[in-house]
């Protein structure tokens, strides 16, 4: 893996990265490179992948744009997070399952006071979800659902009967991003990771609560009319982010940006 934000170093150490290619990095090395900032504040990080022509998915899924190393980083980001926040449509399209405990991150998570695996928090206004799926029936820790006060009462009841914890984070049918983050923080969850989809990420951007974007630029082109990584109404003034690192392997760029 080459760090393009600093002068090249034969070993990689002077550039602030471990030596070798990204697929050769240990999970410990990846975890150090992608560690959350120190402090007690809430930090919301997004992890997304995009083709060269701006598609955030192909045939409704992100996997065709991904790579083995991208999936290693995906797993590392999950291994560091308290909660994975995801939209209901992405849960349906990507076939979300509960996050699993991984031995490689066990000691690190225990030292940080985290549970064995991150909580999955699903954002949904309608709660149009299949509560017989493993995400709700087999999680290591109960799945959370973030919704609004006007959510259908029968669906809220069904979610709770399935074992999910329902958190109200909006006065209407939908979720207010800042209130969603506050509700998670009240439960001690400050290291937050969102994996989209585009509509949810767009809401976080519009609300000004996204702190960091980890974006994999895939060396692919899809054409078609696939969504970008963020959707919804445009912001009045483009949100500005600064580059933290740009890493490359086999044509894939693994980038990190933080909000200015």
From TrEMBL:
The keyword Chaperone does not apply. Residues 1-23 are annotated as: Disordered. The keyword Oxidoreductase applies. It holds the Pfam family RibD_C. Residues 43-237 form the Bacterial bifunctional deaminase-reductase C-terminal domain. InterPro entries: DHFR-like_dom_sf, RibDG_C, Riboflavin_Biosynth_HTPR. Keywords: NADP, Oxidoreductase. Transmembrane segments: none annotated. Pathway: Cofactor biosynthesis; riboflavin biosynthesis. It comes from the Bacteria. PANTHER family: 2,5-DIAMINO-6-RIBOSYLAMINO-4(3H)-PYRIMIDINONE 5'-PHOSPHATE REDUCTASE, DIHYDROFOLATE REDUCTASE FAMILY PROTEIN (AFU_ORTHOLOGUE AFUA_8G06820). This is Pyrimidine reductase family protein. It comes from Streptomyces gulbargensis.
